[in-house]
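Incident log, support desk, overnight shift.

02:14 A customer reports that sequence design results differ from what the structure should imply. Their input is reproduced verbatim below. On-call engineer (initials T.W.) acknowledged and began investigating.
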């Protein structure tokens, strides 16, 4: 699955994944993402409204791509889900996925916004956030539109542009026994249905 999202498992373990690659993986796993770069967040108030919207729902998840340095922690680029919002103190509850390093903790919403703005050295774009749900209409926000260009930056570290990736994927022929058909479509593990590889789907746009 990772290879179809323009990176290898070894690379993901070694250096992690970019925000566009994270979006790609979400789509490959049957989720509908709304992805926004930190540089596209116009105001703290809009971000606050979106956080309130998502944290008050049981079937939508808010994932932050942020710089640990900006938030005063060790390390740099990181992903964490938000589990709640404290309106009285304007705090978000971060469920850090590196539990060996940090337990769940509260972060000021303003700090979270600032930590989404530093540039990722791989993509040259800021970090940001992703709203995920299995239902497409659940991720549609009255406050944000998907950031433009997100789905074209799939493998810049290897020097490939999205048209090149499309050409590569069109030419790949993989046996059905490995989960792919002759048209290079990928099988959805949950439904058993075949569809386009995520790199192609994401590079085009959301469905």
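02:41 Re-run completed on a clean worker. Output:
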């Amino acid at each position: 699955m990772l290879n179809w999202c323009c990176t290898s498992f070894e690379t993901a373990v070694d250096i992690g994944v970019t925000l566009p690659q994270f979006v790609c993986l979400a789509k490959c796993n049957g989720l509908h993402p709304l992805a926004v770069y930190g540089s596209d967040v116009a105001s703290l108030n809009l971000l606050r409204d979106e956080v309130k919207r998502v944290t008050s729902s049981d079937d939508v998840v808010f994932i932050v791509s942020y710089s640990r340095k900006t938030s005063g922690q060790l390390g740099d680029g990181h992903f964490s889900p938000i589990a709640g919002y404290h309106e009285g103190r304007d705090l978000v509850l971060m469920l850090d996925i590196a539990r060996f390093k940090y337990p769940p903790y509260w972060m000021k919403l303003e700090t979270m916004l600032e930590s989404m703005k530093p540039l990722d050295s791989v993509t040259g774009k800021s970090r940001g956030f992703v709203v995920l749900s299995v239902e497409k209409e659940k991720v549609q926000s009255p406050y944000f539109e998907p950031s433009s260009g997100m789905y074209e930056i799939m493998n810049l570290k290897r020097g490939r542009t999205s048209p090149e990736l499309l050409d590569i994927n069109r030419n790949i022929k993989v046996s059905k026994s490995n989960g792919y058909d002759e048209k290079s479509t990928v099988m959805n593990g949950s439904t058993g249905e075949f569809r386009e590889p995520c790199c192609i789907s994401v590079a085009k746009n959301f469905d």
